[in-house]
Automatic annotation (TrEMBL):
<feature type="domain" description="CRM">
    <location>
        <begin position="172"/>
        <end position="269"/>
    </location>
</feature>
<keyword id="KW-0175">Coiled coil</keyword>
<dbReference type="InterPro" id="IPR035920">
    <property type="entry name" value="YhbY-like_sf"/>
</dbReference>
<feature type="coiled-coil region">
    <location>
        <begin position="289"/>
        <end position="316"/>
    </location>
</feature>
<dbReference type="GO" id="GO:0003723">
    <property type="term" value="F:RNA binding"/>
</dbReference>
<dbReference type="InterPro" id="IPR040286">
    <property type="entry name" value="At3g25440-like"/>
</dbReference>
<dbReference type="Pfam" id="PF01985">
    <property type="entry name" value="CRS1_YhbY"/>
</dbReference>
<dbReference type="InterPro" id="IPR001890">
    <property type="entry name" value="RNA-binding_CRM"/>
</dbReference>
<protein>
    <recommendedName>
        <fullName>CRM domain-containing protein</fullName>
    </recommendedName>
</protein>
<keyword id="KW-0694">RNA-binding</keyword>
Length: 339
């Protein structure tokens, strides 16, 4: 027994040194937090079952959240056990408070769920396109075309430029002799401004003012142009350039006169017009809308014809059944008479 005593003392020394190191570490951490240095072994009192007098006096310090970056860490020592909680109820309440009232949190779909949803839509559309019933196929195409038409109308609304209130333009009154003279001189000159598929935009009006620097008249050639669209172009260019229309020729050419008291404006391209790029985008959407509306009319006619055909075939089948039943009754009556 005497030989075992020194060995037991040697085994207890590392444990005591580890406990002392833990107490000094807790003292230094408490000193940094501003709570004062507790007595040796005070942190181990709740664990060992010792009176919680010191813990009651400093319980508020352990329940304060410790900020580490953007996350709140809370230490809870109720029941003699140390528990850490990250975030806690305060963080959850903050997240709920950020959401607008009356709106539930939108569930974010994963990439795989989105891909599966798209596959399901494509499979559904494929079944409708390859359906043996012609009415199902026509209705599917019609719904798709109508959705595209609504989308194109929404796109075209973005290119509508609000017109600013301008003073009413008072056109100059020209006599017949002056008009005849200006027509002859304008036809001999070679200066012209083209209006293409983009239609009337700021660049067309700018080119007209640049031509009016040296010439009194300018020709505006509209190609391509639908029937009656040349008059719309003439009204729009008259409003924007403040010129006077002298003549509109059958080959969609408009002759403009700058005016007797013409003064070149400081801003030759009006602000309430589209740019060259946006005018081209608008033309493409308009062209697509025109073709889509024609396709919708064609599908509606096909659907109507198919429904008429089905109704006619149904009526024809009913009449054939009635005729066959009448013939069967006549046969029965003739056979009974002969007997």
């Amino acid at each position: 027994m005497a030989s075992l005593a020194p060995r037991l003392l040697l085994r207890r020394r590392p444990l005591r040194s580890a406990a002392a190191a833990l107490v000094t570490l807790c003292d230094s951490w408490a000193g940094l937090r501003g709570a004062g240095s507790p007595r040796d072994g005070a942190l181990l009192e709740p664990v060992c079952g010792v009176s919680g007098r010191w813990m009651d006096g400093r319980r508020w310090w352990f329940h304060q959240p410790v900020r580490h970056g953007s996350t709140a860490v809370t230490l809870n020592t109720d029941g003699g056990f140390a528990r850490f909680s990250v975030g806690g109820d305060a963080a959850a309440k903050e997240k709920l408070g950020r959401q607008p009232p009356g709106k539930a949190a939108k569930k974010k779909m994963s990439r795989k769920a989105k891909v599966n949803q798209l596959k399901w839509y494509r499979l559904k559309a494929k079944k409708k396109m390859k359906s043996p019933n012609p009415e199902v196929r026509i209705r599917y195409k019609l719904e798709k075309a109508k959705r595209k038409e609504e989308w194109l109308i929404e796109k075209l609304r973005k290119y509508e430029v609000p017109r600013s209130p301008e003073p009413v333009h008072d056109p100059e009154i020209l006599t017949e002799e002056e008009k005849f003279y200006l027509k002859r001189t304008g036809e001999k000159k070679k200066n012209y401004v083209p209006v293409g598929r983009r239609g009337v935009f700021g660049g067309v009006v700018l080119n007209m003012h640049l031509h009016w620097k040296k010439h009194e008249t300018v020709k505006v050639i509209c190609k391509p142009c639908r029937p009656g669209q040349v008059h719309e172009y003439a009204e729009e260019l008259t409003r924007l350039s403040k010129g006077t229309v002298i003549d509109i020729k059958p080959n969609n050419t408009i002759m403009f006169y700058r005016g007797k008291n013409y003064v070149q404006p400081k801003v030759m391209s009006p602000p309430d017009t589209l740019s060259k790029q946006k005018a081209l985008e608008k033309y493409r959407y308009e062209q697509s809308l025109e073709h889509t509306s024609q396709f919708i009319e064609k599908l509606e006619k096909e659907l109507e014809d198919y429904q008429k055909h089905v109704a006619l075939f149904k009526n024809h089948g009913e009449t054939s059944e009635t005729i066959s039943s009448k013939e069967y009754v006549d046969d029965l009556t003739t056979s009974s008479d002969t007997e």
